[in-house]
Design goal:
The complex is a heterotetramer of chains A (about 250), B (about 350), C (about 400) and D (about 450). With about 250 residues, chain A is an alpha/beta fold. Chain A is built from nine helices and ten strands. Chain A has a six-stranded mixed beta sheet, with helices on both faces. The termini of chain A are far apart. Chain B is mainly alpha-helical and about 350 residues long. Chain C has a domain at about 5-280: Orthogonal Bundle (ABC transporter involved in vitamin B12 uptake, BtuC), CATH 1.10.3470. Chain C contains 16 helices and six strands. Chain C has helices at about 5-25, 45-65, 75-90, 95-115, 120-140, 145-150, 200-220, 225-235, 235-240, 245-270, 280-295, 300-315, 320-325, 335-345, 350-365, 370-380, and strands at about 155, 175-180, 180, 185-190, 195-200, 275. In chain C, strand 4 and strand 5 (about 195-200) form a beta hairpin. In chain C, helix 2 crosses helix 8 (about 225-235) and helix 4 (about 95-115) packs antiparallel against helix 10. The radius of gyration of chain C is 22 Å and the shape is globular. Chain D has three domains: about 1-35, no CATH class; about 45-180 and about 330-405, Response regulator (Rossmann fold, 3-Layer(aba) Sandwich), CATH 3.40.50; about 180-315, Rossmann fold, CATH 3.40.50. Chain D has 13 helices and 18 strands. The chains are: A alpha/beta (about 250), B mainly alpha (about 350), C mainly alpha (about 400), D alpha/beta (about 450).
């Protein structure tokens, strides 16, 4: 039984069966990738995981609790942190402030009316934010406006913000989409580093094979709304069904 | 029954005025992304185009009438318009009588010019600024325009009647076989409704069937892409601003016989026109028209004595109540698109 | 000091000094000089400066931090005013209960309106708040006349119960006071032609304003304040960071509404009348303009904006052609008339024109409002010393 | 406790003495307080003219201001003296008031009680005004009157027609020359009954605020006493601009008279709508349909243009009064001459009432020998005068309301000029308009001299 347990999930939009009988397990402390060609149902599945969509059938359990119908903040409080396709950070705030918010959220829960204390007086939070910035090699940028960071640094910050919450599952949604090759490689390196240094479970939804093969411990290939194969990367590489699915897309 | 038909007629009539003002506001918002608090002032300027033309037509020389006395007891000076001299009294008076419809011709170029000057001189510098800045600068502009009009025309209302031919009421009751006189409606208000519909239709046709309109619509949907295609969208937006100003101005011209204009009339319509635009859905032209008509009809029904007796004060709040209910049940208004003005 | 950073402490001290010395600073011209008309150091206007300052500070907590533009904030000012007058009528002419209850009532009203309006964001939120405020205004001015006094406004009367006060047989309505210190009481000091009026009501309002300002600084610097700024910046990220934005927004809206209610309560404490037009959209629009004019999201900006607009309203509207002729009487006759003719449209009944031009001028040339003007001036002074002075984001 | 409120002018004078050549600050406390608020101690006295200068009533406010400036001229002995020459009291000599030159400050009420009070307070606190006057709405009048009572200065109301001003909201420091809703009803009803018959069914549209309520009530009561029946009374929001939805049902309601209890822009718009809907031309219950506007003003008539032709209403005064109704209304022509010569057009009733109020105040001070509000109150209470254009008039002491004849007027069919829009149909003598001050409730209280 993995930490994330997706069972028989099906979702229908009008006449289109977007997902059917999706069952997969993400084991703790592994990196599990879900890949598939465009239209395979990756985003629909993702939306089911984060509470945006409720599947018609099946269940999605995180550590024994259903995530279905929960709001994004509840899902985060369960221990799932999400990294977006395009980095979602607080552009108007400084890098340091960006880093503090998730730590506050982790410490104080979904809502805390602390309107009087100075936020810098919360030494534990400040310390943790400083450590996390060090980890991300961004300590020198702490006073910068987050919006003025480079694209790669924004991604770095976002991932750092997610990690600062010590999530039980890090959910990455096409983390390198639209990135230049150099930035993509940097991101891959960063994720590798994280994987090696921390005990963390990563689920990654990705289109780019290159990213997936360098990171994942296990890969699920999705095609036409249903899992095609699930195996270790080495086996997926030459798998005829996968080739067919990807070639079919380009045909 | 007749009461209900009458209130529907009245609602459509009121609603067409709301829709016409909201139409221009939505055009400017949809094409330029600018929250224009000076839109009410454009409506007011249109109305004063009618006043100005009627002043021009009645430029007079004085003739002393010894038989009458003025308030100080001196012989009365009678004003005789030059048009009377030039075209004879009958024709001259007819021209003056028709000054409001004639003002349409006068207002179109004037309002387009005002719109273009406004856009080039001021608004274009605010495209990339926050909505709050746009609100402040256009609100400031509205005050300035109002005060200029007040300086020259005073604060009092100025009667600008419709032509004699349109004074009186049309008997719908007789037309549809009910008692004669049971449903009557003033000619000019019917004219206003038809005029509004024609103008709205013209704007839609223009956007739908001309290449210019297509580019503008594409620009409303995605400004950057159209810009990349090498089309000079900015110039087209300037033209759109001119058109929106003209639509607001014409709405004002035709409104003058319904209520004598004063410098403040734009502000009276500003809030309601924003409510209409938002209830219709920001950036949606059909939404603005629909919301205008719906709110107009609701307002008319809420003004009925029978309704007020049951719910005191409902006539005061019905539009706002409707707006709240619509916005709570339909998050983006009646026909709004996702992602417009939500942050 | 007081848990504030050095920079914030000096800002607070500066504001405190300005508030304390306002009666002197706002009367820069000697009493009998021609320019005395520009003096603003009389009790009514000084009270208005600080009261509208509170209103704008509170509005800025909502708009400046979260970016939610309420177009119906005057409803809370009005609700606070009505509650305040009722306290003065029913309970006691002492202003303390009036000020407290008006804040509480406005807060409750804000919970109601906020709970519904905050279901939407952006302009839809603005229109919802506008609709609620306009409904409040329309009802207050008409069908609620027994509670609100209608268009005439709610006033104290000779035969009010005032259950905590003793019998009043003076034949006059007692004036609002703070344990005997009447809000209208003043101490006047005359120094070589300058006349300074130190008014009790002004200092009561001024002290409350300083407290409100201090609390606002604390809110700005608190984790709560950061969360609010995060809402403005990226609400989606905040949600996925495990924070529930709803209660944050509602709390912010209610705090902001309570500031407005406090301002309303102070208004009636200084001058016991509450009129319905206090709730009208123009009043809500005014606080929006004050905030933008001063500088959105800055601490001191809204106070400056409030001051500037109230100054125009009260000083420029009172200049008449008679005064103009007096000022320019040193010029030759023809020139005097010419100058007066040029200036006349901008003053007296034309003060709106000046106000409109000022709005446009400020926003065109100073996109950050008056605070930007201050920053530019201080920057041009410190340029020579060091140009590397780190520019913190506008706070 | 010791009161530290000080009068401003008092301080000025003592300040000038004490401060002569001395740099030491002089601080004044209660002991040196003046006898009353803003006691003028210099060679001049300041009056506060608080009129709407912005908003829809700005033109009316401008006309009031013209009259005030004219009155100041006359009080200071400049110009032709206007109604000072015809005024029955001869205390004023053109030498200012009590020998002090009259100066004035102006302010903008914006027709909002809040703004009006702010403006009035600045006049009292900053400019040392001893009397506040003006305004063109009852809400403002009631609010400013209450303020003046608290502050201890005199309030001479401008154009305010609601019964409340000298009824339930009356104040000892406040005075009204203008007539009120009750008088309108009492004056209008007999004429309407005479012209349109006693068997009429009325439909009221009433502006939804205090003035509207009192006017509707007054007109209803007095027309019903004449035998009329009230079919319906509908309240219209004050902010309404398009009255069509209120006018549309009128014709089928069984009514044959429409009463528009509206003023200003409301009245212009509702009357314009009524005429558009053909009510003037229609027949109901076998009779010609009629429209009535209880309170007329010339500026409104100007705004409504031809639509006022033939429509009845009342006014406090009209510039043609003396020519039409003879020398009982002496003063009218003197005022019109004086005003017309200076400004080029005849004065409105708002201008007339504010001019009268200024003169009456000055005269009261002169006769009382003091500016003290209590002295002024004594001098004005039950003061009987003549020669201010309204015929013999009484300033009643019990509610500070003037009692004088009221004019029933009708819109002219063929006006000679834009000022000649109303013709006087009848004049109701003041005896017929007098009522018991107790009927409206309220307490006058005692005069408050401030300090």
């Amino acid at each position: 039984m993995g930490i994330l347990d997706i069972k028989d999930v099906g979702k229908r939009f009008g006449g289109l069966q977007a997902l059917s009988d999706v069952t997969l397990n993400v084991e703790e402390n592994t990196c599990h990738a879900i890949i598939g060609p465009n239209g395979a149902g990756k985003s629909t599945l993702l939306n089911c995981l984060i509470g945006k969509l409720i599947p018609d059938t099946g269940s999605v359990m995180f550590d024994g609790q259903s995530v279905l119908g929960r709001t994004p903040y509840e899902i985060n409080q369960l221990g799932i942190s999400r990294v977006f396709q395009t980095p979602e950070i607080f552009g108007d705030l400084t890098v340091f402030e960006n880093m503090m918010i998730p730590i506050f959220a982790k410490r104080d829960g979904a809502f805390a009316l602390d309107a009087i204390s100075d936020f810098m007086s919360h030494k534990d939070v400040v310390e943790q934010a400083e450590n996390e910035l060090e980890e991300m090699n961004m300590a020198d940028k702490r006073h910068m406006h987050a919006a003025s960071l480079s694209r790669g640094d924004k991604r770095r910050l976002e991932i750092g913000m997610c990690l600062s919450q010590q999530p039980r599952l890090l959910l990455l949604d096409e983390p390198t989409a639209g990135m230049a090759r150099a930035d993509t490689n940097n991101t891959i390196d960063l994720l590798k580093e994280i994987k090696e240094e921390r005990d963390i479970t990563i689920a990654i939804i990705e289109h780019d094979m290159h990213v997936v093969f360098s990171l994942a411990d296990r890969i699920t290939v999705l095609a036409q709304g249903t899992p095609l194969v699930e195996d270790v990367p080495e086996k997926i590489k030459g798998h005829p069904k996968v080739k067919e699915a990807y070639l079919g897309e380009s045909a | 029954m007749d009461q209900i038909i009458l209130q529907i007629l009245n609602g459509l009539d009121k609603g067409s005025a709301y829709a016409l003002i909201a139409l221009g506001l939505t055009l400017i918002f949809g094409t330029l992304g600018v929250v224009n608090f000076a839109h009410g002032a454009l409506f007011m300027l249109g109305a004063f185009c009618a006043v100005t033309l009627s002043r021009i037509l009645t430029i007079s020389h004085t003739v002393i009438d010894e038989t009458k006395k003025d308030f100080l007891g001196n012989p009365l000076k009678v004003e005789v318009p030059y048009v009377n001299d030039w075209f004879g009294e009958a024709t001259g008076q007819a021209i003056i009588d028709w000054s409001v419809p004639l003002s349409i011709l006068f207002a179109i170029p004037v309002m387009i010019a005002i719109g273009v000057i406004m856009e080039r001189g001021l608004i274009k510098h605010f495209y990339k600024r926050p909505h709050a800045d746009q609100i402040l600068v256009t609100f400031g502009l509205a005050i300035v325009l109002q005060e200029i009009v007040k300086y020259y025309y005073g604060a009092n209302q100025i009667p600008t009647p419709a032509p004699e031919a349109f004074i009186g009421s049309f008997d719908f009751g007789a037309l549809i076989g009910m008692d004669p006189g049971s449903i009557i409606y003033p000619y000019w208000r019917i004219v206003y409704f038809c005029f509004a519909m024609v103008l709205i239709g013209a704007v839609f046709a223009f956007l739908q069937f001309t290449t210019f309109g297509m580019v503008v619509r594409a620009g409303m949907a995605d400004r950057e892409t159209v810009g990349l295609l090498g089309i000079n969208i900015d110039r087209r937006f300037t033209v759109m601003f001119g058109i929106a100003a003209a639509v607001a101005g014409l709405a004002g011209v035709m409104y003058t016989p319904i209520n004598p204009p004063n410098y403040h009339m734009g502000m009276d319509f500003l809030v309601i026109s924003f409510v209409v635009v938002v209830v219709g859905g920001m950036g949606s032209l059909p939404g603005a028209i629909l919301a205008g008509l719906v709110l107009g009809i609701l307002e008319s029904f809420a003004s009925m004595r029978q309704v007020i007796e049951v719910l005191p004060g409902i006539n005061q709040v019905v539009i706002y109540l409707a707006a709240i209910i619509i916005l709570l049940t339909r998050p983006r208004g009646l026909m709004g698109r996702k992602g417009v003005m939500e942050d | 000091m007081l848990g504030l950073s050095k920079k914030d402490t000096s800002l607070l001290i500066a504001v405190a000094v300005l508030v304390a010395l306002a009666p002197v600073l706002l009367n820069p011209f000697p009493e009998n000089s021609a320019l005395a008309q520009f003096n603003a150091g009389y009790p009514d206007l000084m009270q208005r400066f600080v009261i509208f300052g509170i209103f704008a500070i509170g509005f800025n907590i909502l708009f400046g931090l979260t970016g939610y533009l309420s177009f119906g904030h005057a409803a809370f000012l009005g609700a606070g005013s009505y509650a305040g007058v009722w306290m003065l009528k029913l309970l006691t002419i002492n202003v303390i209960p009036a000020i407290l209850i008006s804040t509480v009532v406005a807060g409750l009203f804000a919970i109601l309106i906020g709970y519904i309006s905050l279901r939407r964001s952006g302009i839809y939120f603005s229109i919802l708040t506008l609709a609620f405020a306009q409904m409040s205004f329309a009802l207050a001015a008409s069908v609620l006349t027994p509670i609100t006094g209608g268009e005439t406004g709610l006033q104290t009367a000779l035969n009010d119960p005032r259950i905590l006060d003793g019998v009043n047989d003076s034949g006059n309505i007692p004036a609002p006071n703070l344990f005997g210190l009447e809000m209208g009481d003043s101490l006047q000091v005359n120094v070589a032609g300058w006349l300074w009026t130190f008014n009790a009501g002004y200092y009561v309002a001024g002290i409350i304003m300083l407290i409100a300002f201090y609390v606002a600084i604390r809110i700005f610097r608190s984790p709560f304040g950061i969360m609010l700024r995060a809402i403005k910046s990226n609400q989606q990220r905040l949600n996925y960071t495990g924070l529930n934005t709803r209660p944050y927004m509602l709390a912010c809206f209610v705090i902001s509404g309570m500031y407005a209610g406090l301002a309303g309560g102070l208004m009636v404490a200084m001058d016991p009348l509450a009129g319905a037009e206090r709730m009208q959209w123009t009043a809500s629009g005014e606080v929006v303009l004050m905030t933008i004019l001063g500088g959105v999201g800055t601490l001191i900006g809204p106070v400056l904006g409030a001051g500037l607009i109230k100054y125009f309203e009260n000083i420029f509207s009172k200049i008449n052609s008679n005064l103009l002729h007096k000022w320019f009487s040193f010029l030759p006759d023809g020139l005097e008339d010419f100058v007066v003719t040029i200036i006349y449209p901008f003053i007296g009944k034309g003060w709106h024109l000046t106000l409109g031009l000022m709005f446009m001028g400020v926003i065109i040339f100073l996109p950050g409002g008056l605070v930007e003007l201050g920053q530019r001036i201080s920057r041009s002074f410190s340029k020579n010393k060091n140009d590397a002075a780190e520019q913190k984001p506008a706070e | 406790m010791s009161k530290t409120t000080l009068t401003r002018r008092g301080v000025l004078k003592s300040g000038a003495v004490a401060g002569a050549g001395v740099a030491l600050p002089t601080i004044f406390t209660a002991s040196s307080a003046a006898a009353y608020m803003n006691e003028p101690t210099g060679s001049s006295v300041t009056l506060g003219f608080n009129v709407p200068q912005t908003g829809p009533y700005a033109d009316e406010g401008a006309d009031e201001l013209r009259a005030y400036m004219l009155a100041v001229e006359h009080l200071n002995g400049e110009g032709d003296g206007g109604m000072m020459n015809t005024f029955s009291s001869k205390a004023l000599t053109g030498n200012g008031i009590l020998g002090k030159k009259v100066e004035y400050v102006t302010g903008d009420t914006q027709t909002k009680p809040d703004a009006a009070r702010a403006s009035a307070r600045s006049m009292i606190e900053k400019d040392g005004a001893i009397m506040i006057t003006g305004g063109s709405s009852s809400g403002v009048a009631v609010a400013v009157q209450a303020l003046c009572q608290e502050a201890g200065v005199v309030f001479m109301a401008g154009l305010t027609h609601s019964n409340d001003t000298t009824g339930k909201d009356k104040k000892a420091n406040g005075f009204r020359h203008f007539f009120n809703s009750y008088m309108t009803g009492a004056a209008l009803a007999p004429i309407l009954a005479n012209e349109y018959g006693k068997d009429r069914k009325a439909y009221h549209l009433t502006a939804d605020y205090n003035w509207g309520y009192t006017t509707e009530e007054a007109v209803r009561t007095s027309t019903e006493a004449m035998g009329w029946e009230t079919v319906a009374a509908v309240k219209t929001p004050l902010a309404t601009t398009d009255f069509s939805s209120f006018i549309a049902p009128v014709l089928n309601s069984g009514a044959d008279v429409l009463v528009l209890n509206h003023y200003g822009g409301n009245m212009v718009n509702s009357l314009t709508s009524a005429v558009q809907f053909g009510l003037r031309a229609a027949e109901a219950n076998g009779k010609q349909f009629q429209v009535v506007v209880p309170l007329y003003s010339r500026l409104m008539a100007q705004g409504a243009g031809k639509n006022v032709a033939g429509i009845y209403g009342t006014t406090n005064w009209h510039w043609s009064l003396e020519n039409v109704a003879g020398s009982r209304y002496v003063g009218t022509n003197a005022f019109v001459q004086s005003f017309g010569a200076k400004y080029g057009f005849p004065p409105s009733q708002a201008a007339h009432t504010t001019y009268c109020q200024t003169l009456l105040y000055a005269d009261a001070c002169q006769r009382a020998g003091t500016f003290n509000p209590c002295g002024v109150q004594e001098a004005l209470a039950d003061f009987e005068f003549d020669g201010l254009g309204n015929g013999p008039t009484l300033y009643r002491g019990s509610d500070h309301q003037c009692f004088k004849d009221a004019l029933v007027v009708r819109g002219k069919e063929n006006p000679d000029s834009q000022f000649d829009l109303l013709e006087t149909v009848d004049i109701t003598p003041r005896e017929a308009l007098t009522y018991d001050p107790a009927i409206f409730g309220g307490e006058l209280g005692t005069c408050n001299p401030g300090a």
